[in-house]
Amino acid sequence: MIDSLLLAFTDAFGRVQQALFEGVVQPLAFHLGLGNVVEDAFDATGWLLVGLLQIVVLLVVIGALERWRPVEPVTDRRAVRTDVLYTLIHRLGLFRVGLFFAVDPLFDEAFGAARLAGLPTWQFDEWFAPWWPGVTDSAWFSFVAYLLVFDFVDYWIHRGQHQFRWWWGLHSLHHSQRQMTMWSDNRNHLLDDLIRDSVIVIVARLIGIPPGQFIAVVACTQLLESLSHANLRVWFGTVFERVLVSPRFHRLHHSIGLGHETAGQGTLGGHNFAVLFPVWDVLFRTGNFEVRYDPTGIRDQLPDAGGREYGQGFWHQQWLGLRRAFGRKN
Fold this sequence. Notes:
- There is one protein chain.
- By secondary structure, the protein is an all-alpha fold.
- The protein has helices at 2-31, 38-68, 77-91, 94-102, 104-116, 124-128, 139-163, 165-175, 190-207, 211-228, 237-240, 247-253, 279-283, 314-326.
- The protein is globular.
- The mean pLDDT is 85.
């Protein structure tokens, strides 16, 4: 039943992608003299379509949930509008286009050289197939397996962002939002995103995930991250709070002086690093399952702690992030 629904959705998505590509993207590419990247433009159309669908879900579903049961009133609309800009840049593929021209050729060259050197490509789904014969032929099983793999990688990336002082200098931009909403997930320094996405792309190529599965994994992860950042007073109960990251679970990670601090280490360390599945926080003892909803932000933003500035607009935030990471004062 689930496989049939996935197949139907995939077919419908493919038809819409083809129509959007042939009707809009391909003619525009030829008009701009970019006929040499038409094949890649088809893949970019898929990412654009995914982003549009995500924004619809944000506005219609998660937005309605925020209005239904908010943690706090939204008083800083300017800060939220900046987060909306970050979301549009990432979800509509603008950041991915930048990666395509600046970084992807390097990956193509590196993996091409590896193949010429005789290094084999490992197929993750072929590796676990003998362990669960029959079940692994299911599309949903592969999808969940890949979700777990990438979530495990994301957990350790997130630990690194909170462990290394220079990396925290970049990542702290994400935590500086005092008015956290469903738009806050993509509020990141571009260099921080470049590092994280590069690791994910390398892992994706190493395990041989099919392109369609990769897009689905990224889309699902992004939507659930938007939900976990939502201004929403909801938790999933004692049991399911340990199965899927809830808005309460992740809000505690953003809480001032609690979620991203460890005693004696200032702003380094913390709790609740899982992106989708809290099982990693349970296994590695970094979970905090207190049912509480604290103000979000960073301790040094408070007036009595120095009132540190993290920027009011996109470019100001990006510049200050570089100064925190690589300047004399972190």
